[in-house]
Amino acid sequence: MKQNKKEKIKKEKEVTIRQAALNTLYSIKLLWTISRRRVVYVALKQLLGHLAWMFFSVFFIRHIAESIQNKAPVEHIFAYIGIVCFANLFLMLFDSYVNHVIKPLDDIKVYKKLYQDIYRKAENVELSCYEDSTFYDKYTMAVDGAADKITETSELLFTIFSALIASVITYYFMFQIDKRMIIFVIAPILGNFVFGAILNKSRFKMYKENTPYARRTEYVNRVMYLSDYAKEMRLSKIYNLLQHTYETATENTVNICKKFRLKNIILSFGQVYFSYTIIFEGIMVFGAYCALSEKSMSLSEYAIITSMMGLASWAIINTANNLLKCSQNGLLLHNLRSFLLYEEKIPEDYDGIMPDSEIKSIEFKNVSFGYKPDTPVIKNLSFALTGKSSIALVGHNGAGKSTIIKLLFRLYDPNPDGGEILLNGINIKEYNLKAYRALFAAAFQDYKIFAGSVKENVLLGRENIQGEPDEIVRHALTRARVMEKIESLPNGIESILTKEFDEEGQVLSGGEFQKIVVARAFANPAPIKVFDEPSSALDPIAEYELFESIIEESKDNFMLFISHRLSSVKNADEVLMLENGEIIERGTHIELMALNGKYADMFTKQAKNYQPDEASLESEEVAV
Q1: Domain of 317?
Q2: Is the pLDDT of residue 462 over 80?
Q3: Residue closest to 360 by CA, chosen among 421, 431, 410, 423
Q4: pTM assigned to the model
């Protein structure tokens, strides 16, 4: 059992290392495709920087020391120093040019191209990805600092490569002076790759254990400053609960730190002692012994060996730290790589045949669907819209109404063996997806108002509009029964909505915002109109008036709408009563009332909430 566990851990570790390496190489390749200049210049900067450091620590100090010891002419020494200073000035200028010109300009290019790719991918993946918490986490982590991770990883790799070259050259010259210097090579390796590696693992484990509590404190911090929670904060005792959550999370963080503190102190001491203390103190004692007792080392060699050992030690320490950081970045870049390489099931740029301009029929044919394989939401559903007619979907929450809309828009596809959806007799999977979706104009109950003008919120960026845009917007707002309110705003249809970017932005009521959303569907000339609970924020009178306009819209279009309030569906050409993803009753309003089934029962119960005379009027209409 223990052996299997060890093998499993070893295999997971190998997979993790391999993934980190592949992700790192992927990031370099990605950066190369975006900005080759940045890659080349940064690589040169790191290589020249490390070689210059090695030169000063080995050749420069050695030459000066030997020149002084051999009583070389002062002019020779100063000329040498001058040449070196001039070369160093050139390197400083190159370094400054890379840091202040190449990197800032190319980083903008990298950020722009990378986030364009991320957002394009985000736009192209199917809706189910956003409803999958695992995938959505990958998306959010891919967006979070992706460009920084890519540019940082490339610099880390070049730093490691350059440091290794400088280390090899430095150690070669050290061994030329005295072979016993090997002991001072082992010390920093032991300090960084043994003590340092164990310390980093311990810190990562501590970070991992603390992550749930860090998320809690971040959540509380976010809630405390977001305006969405401001009213509840002031009208309830939720602050006490949040405070308790924060204090509990902080207490657990402290306990985790206490749990690891002794181990981390010991490991940190071992890393520092072997990486610095043994080297710098040891090399001084060893060099002094060689120079004074054995007479095997000159004063200049003693100065050189001390300088070289400092460089070598720094190079090993820096390499170890950069390798760890590079590995960590490689694991973080896994989210970016897996997100960008994800193969969409329903890609938004899917190409296919172009739909006819004339819509003759829309048909659900034995359609079955479930968000999870073993949990069906729609079961063997069949219905059709023919001619310019309207269908109303009604039923309790969870009956499958909104899922039908998602399937119709091809945000999801039916189960593999779950029937098909046809447009003009052709499976909708055969159509160009963007062209197919352009056939629909929709208003949803979970609408979003964007930080822009009323006009922009109605048109939603549509181009190639036939007619005067302002007149189309005004006409749509009038039909949605909200134009009077918009005209009362300071700038009419040019008035900015929300205060996101403008302190003078207008914040309307929920019902008024919902009418603007309905106006979007009215302003869109698409032949198929879909309304999903378009009146949930309206009072009965406003709802009645709005549905008059919606039903009027169905005279020239195919229309499908969902409503919990059955009084609003009376004029639909057909009503489908859904329960557990199946049609249990269908017909006109009058036919279903005469059937005296579940639809009639629901309608009667809802009617009791209206004025008595209105309820009586409903009954009289049914009797007729």
Answers
A1: 15-178+297-340
A2: no
A3: 423
A4: 0.64
